[in-house]
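Request: Have a read of the protein record below and say how the chain folds.
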Amino acid sequence: MDRYCHGCFLALTATISILHLVQAQYQQGFISLDCGLPAHESPYTEPFTNLTYTSDASFIRSGKTGRIQKEPGGIYMKPYTVLRYFPDGIRNCYDLSIVQDTKYLIYAVFVYGNYDGRNSSPRFDLYLGPNLWKTIDLQRGDGAKEEIIHVSRSNSLSICLVKTGTTTPMISALELRPLRYETYISQAGSLKTLFRFYLSKSENFLRYPQDVHDRVWIPYFESDWTLISTTLNVKDSDGYELPRAATVTAATPANATEPLTIIWSLDAPNGQVQVYLHSAEIQDLRANETREFSISESDKLYDGNYSAKKLEMETQFNSLPAKCDGGVCRLKLVRTQRSTLPPSLNAIEVYSVIEFPQSETDQNDVAAIKNIQAAYGLDIIGWQGDPCVPKQFMWDGLNCSIPDISTPPRIISL
């Protein structure tokens, strides 16, 4: 009996070790910072996702920590229950080591939760390097999440919170996920997520571990659609690696002669959008059946006669960002004349294009000034983020040459 139990223990230990190894391999390259988490509580495994989060203490040199006041009955993921806030200085920055020329999905999460007992929701600016990313306004709601797809141009990345008024900037979590470089191709700028839907009547959102890249998928279904599904596996052919649950269901128009239409509005009427459509044929078509459709966005055709592959996921996207008339976008999948079946769609992702025009300071100069900072122990609160740009945040004591936004600035004197 003892020998048997000892064998069970060894087998269980080996299984747990293998599971941890698999999880670590899947999370390779992930950065998951629980902002404000005490260093002695780091790292930990978040129970909903099995993601490993660490304290942000070694990634930033300023700020204080707080804890939200939970509402009775509220359910909060652990990374969003503590936070870091910045009562001192104008610009406070996280300095992250990343891989150059890598495509990252970047999350920044903000949950105010009346952590300071003042009921004064903050408003401040969020910067990616030297460029404005977004104005965070928690007066519109207690929490916010900003998400972009961005290609790194150096081996470091600064994410900065900038005070713009009387309220105090704060942040709950920072999360970076590497993506396959050949996916989410855009001819202009980075991509800000507007929505990511899988077409299903499910009530469950999907993220890691269902999605190996930790993208968040929301179920979406219209009343004038019909659901189709399969129990078979759908092969990934384009490298987007959708979670299985997003590949085994699809929507078609209930009226077989009508188009499948999705309409959404933009905050900026002149904004540009990038749309990614994920399709697979998941029905067993008869010899005399055909599913073929055209794809148009705001009346602009970008595929005239598309047929999805049998049990193989493909991704269609507009090669150039599109503008929507009056800021209202209309995606239509229209059955062709030779088709006997209505169009179908498994999942859709929509992004707006966001430009980050200001070049970062020359990386050799940045490395040199940071070496000086470390050698002399210069703990100056203003010495955070990019040393030269934006000009209003240039490090004290530096002189920089900034010829134009497309040329990396140079440090010329200290």
About this structure: The helical segments are 2-26, 363-375. The domain at 191-354 is CATH 2.60.120 (Jelly Rolls). The chain is about 10% helix and 35% strand.
